[in-house]
Design brief:
The chain has 247 residues and is α+β, with helices and mostly antiparallel strands. The chain folds into 2 domains: 143 residues, Jelly Rolls, CATH 2.60.120; 93 residues, Arc Repressor Mutant, subunit A (Orthogonal Bundle), CATH 1.10.10.60. The protein has 8 helices and 11 strands. A hairpin with an 8-residue loop joins strand 3 and strand 4. Helix 3 crosses helix 4 and helix 5 crosses helix 6. The two termini are 12 Å apart.
């Protein structure tokens, strides 16, 4: 494994073999952290239940957010709000960056990134305590928290994720095709894909809580552990077992 540049007081301390490594830092203000490195960092369209804050240490990171190509380089960052479909592109020249996953709409992520860039230029190092302190500093007062994006969507898929698209369309007095088109315009992906992503995010929460991959697969509505494993690795870059235990 290679040394991870500029990351101090964080796990993993070295770049792991996999392009993606997730871990829970044990601080209340950060749900999860990820270290992303190498060339093979591409992921298909997906979304998170948390706000994703990405900060680049070296190289470049490219995202497709809707139809917009977003490119960030060293000491630059981007926030992808909770519920926002996005795609991570491969990086032929390699990249090292961190992702912070924060509870949705609780933090002024733009101000956090601006401050993080200044601190990085001053010290060229990152520490979990520093990140947690910044998240606390830029947390919104509860009275003015913005409304999360997917709370304003007029066409939700049925919440139990069992009802078919046909039944959901009937609920809105629409044809199946018309409902699917409208849903895609609102949510950025077809209803079937949205439903799978919602189940994957449900499994992700269970795995973070220590639930076994087999039990998480059953609870989140997947056919079996292998079914979850295939989709989870393709979507998040690591197998469920590795995700559960961390690097």
């Amino acid at each position: 494994m290679n040394q991870s540049p500029g990351i101090v007081g964080m796990a993993p301390f070295e770049l792991p073999d996999d392009a993606w490594a997730y871990w829970r830092p044990g601080v209340a203000d950060i749900v999860e952290l990820a270290l992303v490195h190498g060339e093979d960092v591409g992921l298909p369209d997906h979304f998170h239940d948390e706000d994703q804050v990405t900060f680049v240490i070296s190289g470049y990171r490219r995202f497709l957010i809707g139809t917009e190509l977003v490119i960030i380089g060293p000491s630059q960052g981007v926030c992808i709000p909770a519920g926002t479909p996005h795609r991570s592109l491969p990086e032929p020249d390699g990249v090292v960056c961190i992702n912070l996953y924060l509870r949705a709409s609780e933090c002024d992520t733009r101000a956090l990134l601006d401050r993080l860039a200044v601190l990085w230029c001053q010290e060229a190092r990152l520490q979990v305590d520093t990140l947690a302190s910044l998240v606390r500093e830029y947390r919104y007062p509860r009275s003015i928290n913005p409304v999360p994006m997917n709370n304003v969507a007029p066409l939700p898929l049925m919440s139990d994720l069992v009802v078919s698209v046909t039944a959901a369309a009937r609920e809105f007095a629409m044809s199946r095709e018309g409902y699917s088109r409208a849903f895609r315009r609102v949510h950025g992906m077809p209803p079937q894909t949205f439903g799978i992503m919602a189940r994957l995010n449900g499994a992700r929460k269970l795995l973070r809580a220590g639930v076994s991959p087999a039990d998480a697969a059953a609870a989140a509505g997947f056919a079996d552990q292998s079914h979850l494993g295939r989709l989870f690795r393709r979507t998040f870059g690591v197998a469920p077992g590795r995700y559960r235990t961390g690097p």
